[in-house]
Write the structure tokens for this entry.
Amino acid sequence: MRYRRRKGISRIVNPLNAAVLGVSIFVLLPIYWLVASSFKTSVNIGASPPQYFPDPISFTNYSTAFVHYGFGRYFLNSVVVTVFATLLVLGIGSLAGYAMGRLPMRGKAPMLVTLLVISVFPEIAVVSPLYLLMRDLGWLGSYQALIIPYTAFNLPFAIWILRNYFMVIPKEMEETSRIDGATTMRTFWSVILPQALPGLFTAGVFTFTACWTEFLMALTFDNTNSFRTIPVGIALFGSPNVIPYGTIFAASVVAVVPVGILVLVFRKFVVSGLTAGAVKG
Amino acid sequence: MASILLEKVGKVYPNGYRAVENLDLEIAEGEFLVLVGPSGCGKTTVLRMIAGLEEISTGDLKIGGAVVNDLEPKDRDVAMVFQNYALYPHMTVAENIGFALKLRKLPKEEVRRKVEEAAEILGLSEWLDRKPKQLSGGQRQRVAMGRAIVRSPKAFLMDEPLSNLDAKLRVKMRSEVRRIQERLGVATVYVTHDQVEAMTMGDRVAVMRDGVLQQCDTPQQLYDHPVNQFVGAFIGSPAMNLYEAKLGPDATVISLGSQTLRIPESTFARRPALRGFAGRMVTVGIRPEDLSVAIPGGPTDGSLITEVQLLEALGSEMMVHFSIDANLVTEEAAAEEEEDILVHKGEGVARVAPDLTVRTGETLMLQVAMERIHFFDPETTWAIW
Ligand SMILES: Nc1ncnc2c1ncn2[C@@H]1O[C@H](COP(=O)(O)OP(=O)(O)OP(=O)(O)O)[C@@H](O)[C@H]1O
Ligand SMILES: [Mg+2]
């Protein structure tokens, strides 16, 4: 097929590229503003006209966040809760997804529909009953008070994603592996799971982000203040009279870093993960 | 190394479909048996039952003398090559080939040695560190073979292993597969729906139809003595020409439409039952290669006058599509969709020398090798012997 090759400047400046550029600026500007402001002195943050680049560059906000407000503790809490919940979701989700996608089983369709319904259930509707449950269990102010609900809330989506992945793996894979002498568990671990790796990354990144940013339950189920996660911690910075914007910005930057790294590292997998069902199935 | 024995083996799928019925088959140690038949006749089902991937509904399966009906695939010690190869995409060629050995907890050194040995046999040594998706179709096929041979199993099971290759490579791999199998001397069941592949590769060929074994014999026997019309038409390419014919009252002549052929006395020695059909309808089978161009002025009691419809010059030989006024008998299940030129009522094919000067529409006298023609009972379609 022949097509016109654009020449010179029009190759770069065309409506499509302009649109991409526009969207990029739209998305990146607030992030830039966040990062830039976190390095400003508290006077300069509210300066008018606004300071486009921090001058002088100050690290006070960061030290205040960690030293004065104990942000390190929140960060650690978030890491513990998020990592555990993500591992649980992937562990349970891959087994359940495999069963749903692969094994002959009665009642698969109703189960899948139920999962879908659960995954769109508004969180706010269950927080109060869950609070009572947590209280009666004596779990208020504990890691499991967050890990377990996070796992439950993120499982349906993970199961769906993983199921779609398992479904497109040819059934001969299991059969060859069986003939080669592998047990069902070994086949799952050595043959099936590696082929669903993009699905695991996708489910993992989504779960991680969801847990990392969850606010409502983290706020509600913590009555001791020593199990605050990052979103709650940041929201409760300061006192009724003072809102320490600079510290909030600095903490937010630190909070964004792990998610950013995660997405960058697994970008390739996540993109292929989201489109997998569409083209292969 | 061991033999495989199927005794009255049957398969009924959970939906009630009877895919295989009463199958008796023996594959001797070191034998290469080809299972052939049209699509859906149950070949894969048989293979999967031997492998242990499909439950055996009735009958017994013995490998090396022991009944293995209830053994798990891994305990049967057979290796299977799938049509789509089913290579593990995340493992290198070496890991693919060595996977079964690794599961057996063999020492690393030994696994490596055996993998290299297998790769050597298959000419894969250079590619051991590649992933399957970086290989060509032929190389993938070899890796699948490698996975099977590295284990030195009791039997090889192969389900149309060459059907994903292009025609040229397929022909090359046929002899390659045979060479390897002969070298290892392992009993092999090889499934294909390509009768040429079956004839060129098999020590013996088992022809199946609708889940029922029709005939199991050496390729030559199948070709010379098909037990029924189906086998006659299925084996051989182009397919046997089948016509309705009437045997004369004293069974010495046979009429195809308006023409008559004299049956030589020797035929009755081989087919005594034919006399019983005197004066009755029979189905006559004439292979394209048993027709030749008649010499002008020669004897006419074994020749047919035909009208040439189409000429296919293949270089080394020529296919003459002709028509006569006899009724054609069709054996639909045996038709090879891809290769056949549409054949009309009363048509036939002759395979003759390429130096023919005749043109389409002209009349051509064809000499029939009368002692080689086949007779089938039109009611049962079984051969008349
Ligand atoms: N799991 C199943 N449940 C029900 N019927 C089945 C099942 N698997 C196969 N069949 C049927 O059994 C018959 C034999 O199938 P099989 O796969 O053995 O045929 P085949 O000879 O290998 O054909 P092909 O040459 O197309 O591979 C087919 O009619 C098929 O529809
Ligand atoms: Mg098949």
In short: Residues 338-343 of chain B have pLDDT under 50 and may be disordered. The interface with chain A takes residues 51-53, 72-74, 78-80, 82, 84, 86, 88-90, 99-100, 103-104, 147, 151 of chain B (CB under 8 Å).
